[in-house]
Each structure stands twice: as structure tokens, then as C-alpha cells.
């Protein structure tokens, strides 16, 4: 598989080892096990710096931490009790930015997949890879992979495909 990293720094720092978070590494492993590639990590030239990019499918994959991107209904997305107003405003800004990034990429012809941290923790790599492959083949403009319903009101499927960024759960 061809795996490249577009570093932000120049010179020797640009050739530093690729550093991924645990959820990013799990998603990368799942994509590679599913035979999907070539791919790039942290594509700084694209809006929002997608975590993984499959140019051949024109797909950007974002691996979102449930806490920072406030995945509603997830146990990992609790709002801290100290300085609650600050955190609620912070999470709202993060979600607004996420929606704007997805909208901008889709306007440029990119499809987007959001993989939630909870999915990388609870799904086996083979299952996650199979779901990613299925979503790539579906042609959906946007999809989300989560270990549970993204919103308590959205009972049922753990996957949502074809959701527009403005319809993303808060």
C-alpha cells in the first residue's frame, strides 16, 4: 500500500515519522486490511486537514474524538461540570466548524466519511474495514460510522449514509 504523509514543516521535520492518534491508527489499519488504498494522512492542502484521504475514490475520512466533537449520546462525550458554559460554547464552535468543513469539501466534489472514536474502540478492525468499504462503494456523499446511534432520537442503525453536514447530530 502507498501511504504518504504531508508534513507541515519543511526540511527534516517534514520527514518525521507519521504520528497518528489511536483512533486514526485503528481506522488506517481497517482501511488497509480491507484493501483500500492508496491513501494519504493529514492532507494539509484540503480544508479541515482530513485525517485520511483516498484520492482514487475522492473521499476524505475524518476520525473524530467523541469528546472534542461532542458526539451526542456517547459516554465519551460528557460535558465537564467545571466551567460548563465554556465547554458548551467550545463544543458548539467545533461542531459548526466540522459542518462547514464537510460542506466546503463536498462543494469541491469530495465525499466525506466521519468515523467516531467510539466506533474504533468497539468495532473489530475487520468489521470497521468492511463498513468503510461498503460506504465507499455506496457512493454516499456523507456517512458516519459510530458504535451506537449518533443521537438518542435516532435509534436503529449504527451507520448513517447520505446525511448532509447541516443534518449532522449535535
Automatic annotation (TrEMBL):
Q: Which Pfam families match?
A: Vsr
InterPro entries listed in its UniProt record: DNA_mismatch_endonuc_vsr, Restrct_endonuc-II-like
Cite the entry's keywords alphabetically.
DNA damage, DNA repair, Endonuclease, Hydrolase, Nuclease
* Gene3D superfamilies, sorted: VSR Endonuclease
> Where does the record place a coiled coil?
none
Give GO MF terms, alphabetically. endonuclease activity
Origin: domain of life? Bacteria
Biased amino acid composition, Polar residues = 160-170
* Segments for region (Disordered): 142-170
Keyword Hydrolase assigned:
yes
Q: Which family does it belong to?
A: Belongs to the Vsr family.
Can you say what this protein is called? Very short patch repair endonuclease
Q: Which organism is it from?
A: Sabulicella glaciei
Q: What is the lineage of its organism?
A: Bacteria, Pseudomonadati, Pseudomonadota, Alphaproteobacteria, Acetobacterales
